[in-house]
Amino acid sequence: MPPPGVDPLDSWLRERLGTRLVAREPVGGGCVHSAWRVHTADGGRLFVKTNRADQLPLFEAEADGLAALARVAPPGLVIPTPLALGLSAEGAVLVLPWLEFARGQAPPGVWAACGADLARLHRDSLQVPRLEAPGPEAHGPEAHAGAFGWERDNVIGASPQLNGWRTSWSTFFWECRLRPQLTWLARKGVGISGGERLRERLPAWLEGHGAQPCLVHGDLWSGNAAPLAQGGASLFDPAVYRGDREVDLAMARLFGGFPEAFFNGYNEVWPLEEGWRARMEIYNLYHVLNHANLFGGGYSKQAQNMVDTMLGL
Predict the structure, then answer these.
(1) What structural domains and CATH numbers belong to the chain?
(2) Which of 130, 191, 249, 305, CA to CA, is 20 to 30 A from 298?
(3) Does residue 54 carry a catalytic annotation?
């Protein structure tokens, strides 16, 4: 253990980033990890997440997702690129750049630009190089061009998010999104009726609008995006995979939702296909089921009502 009064992060940051910690203070960073604003000797600031050592895979998945988004994000959309990741004396650590969020309500133009940039990110992420003859050791999106999924499992909030690769979008959404959530609820004694009928109807609902395997943020509720003090906006805390771009637009309307200017900006660049409102309910069922698993309460009833409505009950 470090001597009293010595921050265990100091030596770790010196080793990893060559910078000395002078102070840190807790900040809001969600309910899964501890989050800190770290002040360094050179006058800089860092955003640092910490957790138990066995939670390092969660940070690895987050860092992987942020790096993937950063590779295709347009210049106006800031994705905090991971600076350091690993184990320190106090457990798992993820270091990100400090982002100064704008105060007060951002003007509609900022949100419109954010929506337009998300559309560009989705569209540009379709350009995945296809390997001529991927061998048995090939992995990653390049080896699975045209498929839906991701090369590793990650997390959605505090829940595991299963991935892998599927050539069918409706198959992926059932096997890797809806079915696991329904199974976990059932194990808790919470049954959602209609699951089998839902599975049978998914191909007709999800395969007719030309879904393409875009890189999606995957957890795009309003708490995972913010306008920045220096201009522009940032997206963070992703749960990435390659899926229908509409999953991001659907969740952006859930749990309070983004300003309407965000959706207007998106549609100026890449308009959504007809029928998106009906698909939005299907996609958001995943997140309501996840909330039912995480928090209980009325979310299971909300999920059942959504299923009943979809099935016309």
Answers:
(1) 23-97 (3.30.200.20), 108-310 (3.90.1200.10)
(2) 249
(3) no
